[in-house]
Write a structure and sequence with these properties.
5 strands; flat
Length: 324
C-alpha cells in the first residue's frame, strides 16, 4: 500500500510538472508572437507617420501643408520676369592703331559680321600724314562682349568704359500702358458707333484723337526701348601713334625757340588787337578832333572881334590931343 501510494504520488507530480512545462512553453510561444505583431504594427505606424504617402497629409495639416507655401515662395523667387531681362549696354573705346583706314575697315567688318551696323563714321585728317576716326557701332546684345574684345585688341588700348542699365521695369510699364491705352481707344470707338447726336460725336472724336496720340507716343517709346535693348552701342575712337597733339608731344619741355615763337605770337596778337581797337575807335577820335578844331577856330574869331574896337579907338585919341 505504501509503495503503491508513493508511486501514485510520484506519477501525479510528474504529470503536473509536464502539464506546467507544456503551459509555460505555450505561453512563451504566444508571447513571442504577440510581441512580434506589436513590433510590426508599431513599425508600420512609425513609417506611416514619418513618410506619408504622396498627396496625403495628416489630420491637422502636417508638414506637407506647411512646406507648400515655402515651395511656392521659392518658385516665385526663382521664376524669371515675364519676357526676360531688358538691358541697355554701351561702351566707349579709344585705341591707338598703326593704320587708321585699315582699323576702320576692320571695325566695320567686325560689326557687320556680328549682325550689326555702323551707325555713324567721322574721319578727320590732321595733316598730310595723320588722320583720326570716330565710329559709332551697333551690335546685337549676345555678340557685344565678343566685338568689344576684338576692337580692343586691334591696337594699343588707351581707354575703355562700359555701362549696363536694366530697363526691364520700364519696358513692362510701357507694355502695360500700351495695352490699357488700346482698350481705352477701343471703348471710345464703341461709344462713337453708339452716339446719335452730332455734339457727342464731335466730343468723342476729340477724345479719340487725344488717346490715339498718347498711344502713338507709347508705341514710339516701346520701339526706342526695343532698339536700344536689342542692339548695344559701341563708340570707337581710332588715332595713329605720334599724332599731332598726342600726349607724348605735350610732355616734352619747351626750349628757347619754343619760348621765342610763343612770345612773337603773343606780340603779333597784341598788335592785331591794338589795330582792331584803333579801327573801332577811329570814327569817334576823328569826330572829337574835328570838334576841337572847330572850337578853337570859333574861339580865335571871337577873341579877334573883341580886340578890333580897342585898336580903332586908340588912334582917334591921339588926333584929338594934337588938335587941342
Amino acid at each position: 500500500m505504501d509503495v503503491e501510494s508513493k508511486s501514485g504520488r510520484s506519477f501525479v507530480r510528474a504529470r503536473a510538472a509536464l502539464v506546467a512545462g507544456s503551459l509555460g512553453l505555450l505561453l512563451a510561444v504566444g508571447g513571442c508572437g504577440a510581441s512580434g505583431d506589436s513590433m510590426d504594427s508599431g513599425a508600420k505606424a512609425a513609417d506611416g507617420k514619418a513618410a506619408p504617402r504622396e498627396g496625403f497629409t495628416d489630420g491637422d495639416g502636417g508638414a506637407a501643408a506647411s512646406a507648400a507655401p515655402e515651395e511656392q515662395a521659392a518658385g516665385k523667387k526663382a521664376a524669371p520676369k515675364p519676357g526676360g531681362t531688358h538691358v541697355i549696354r554701351t561702351a566707349t573705346l579709344s585705341v591707338e592703331v598703326k593704320s587708321v583706314p585699315k582699323a576702320v575697315a576692320a571695325a566695320r567688318g567686325a560689326a557687320e559680321g556680328a549682325g550689326g551696323l555702323v551707325a555713324s563714321e567721322n574721319t578727320e585728317r590732321l595733316d598730310d600724314t595723320y588722320e583720326t576716326s570716330h565710329l559709332v557701332l551697333r551690335v546685337p546684345q549676345e555678340r557685344f562682349q565678343e566685338v568689344l574684345r576684338e576692337l580692343a585688341g586691334s591696337g594699343k588700348l588707351l581707354s575703355r568704359t562700359s555701362n549696363a542699365k536694366d530697363v526691364t521695369d520700364q519696358v513692362v510699364d510701357v507694355e502695360s500702358r500700351i495695352s490699357t491705352q488700346r482698350a481705352s481707344v477701343a471703348r471710345v470707338r464703341e461709344l462713337m458707333d453708339q452716339a446719335e447726336k452730332i455734339s457727342d460725336v464731335v466730343a468723342l472724336e476729340g477724345e479719340l484723337s487725344s488717346r490715339q496720340s498718347d498711344l502713338e507716343s507709347l508705341l514710339a517709346q516701346q520701339a526706342s526701348l526695343k532698339d536700344r535693348t536689342s542692339l548695344a552701342t559701341i563708340t570707337l575712337d581710332l588715332t595713329p601713334p605720334d599724332a599731332p597733339g598726342d600726349d607724348g608731344s605735350k610732355d616734352e619741355d619747351p626750349g628757347f625757340l619754343d619760348a621765342l615763337g610763343g612770345g612773337w605770337d603773343a606780340f603779333v596778337t597784341m598788335l592785331r588787337w591794338i589795330a582792331v581797337a584803333f579801327g573801332a575807335a577811329f570814327p569817334f577820335l576823328l569826330t572829337a578832333a574835328l570838334a576841337v578844331v572847330v572850337w578853337r577856330v570859333l574861339r580865335k574869331r571871337k577873341a579877334a572881334r573883341r580886340a578890333a574896337p580897342a585898336v580903332t579907338a586908340a588912334p582917334a585919341g591921339k588926333d584929338g590931343a594934337s588938335a587941342s
